[in-house]
Design goal:
2 strands, 9% strand
Length: 131
């Protein structure tokens, strides 16, 4: 299954590389690459990694990384990484806990609690403010 996904990724990178090469050959004057090509490259880099995609497409690593980070801050919740809930042992709530949350826009929140029952509600409010 992973082999199929890597093959799909390689095919997508190769297709985008052909479009970028075509744009480079046919442009009339020097100038920045069209934004729609950058968006496609950033989308591929989010799953395939910035460095491998930048090398394969012959793009500037830092320009691509900046676009990946900028695009990541504006992603919808459907595109956000999957949340995995881990059930802590009951003893974890008896002595209290400290939880640190950080959003892509740089906002951070630290929660120190004697109990942990309200943690989910507080985290939900924090994450919803960044949308």
């Amino acid at each position: 299954m992973a082999e199929r996904r890597s093959g799909d990724m390689a095919a997508k990178v190769a297709a985008l590389r052909a479009r970028i090469d075509d744009w480079r050959r046919n442009r009339k004057t020097r100038g920045p690459m069209p934004e729609h090509l950058w968006r496609q490259a950033a989308r591929l880099a989010r799953t395939g990694g910035v460095n491998p995609v930048a090398e394969a497409l012959k793009l500037n690593y830092y320009d691509l990384k900046r676009r990946v980070v900028q695009g990541g801050a504006n992603r919808t919740t459907a595109q956000m990484p999957v949340f995995v809930e881990l059930a802590p042992p009951a003893a974890a709530f008896s002595g209290g806990c400290v939880v640190e949350l950080a959003r892509p826009d740089g906002a951070k929140m630290t929660i120190r609690m004697a109990g942990g029952r309200e943690l989910v509600a507080l985290a939900d409010v924090f994450w919803s403010r960044g949308r």
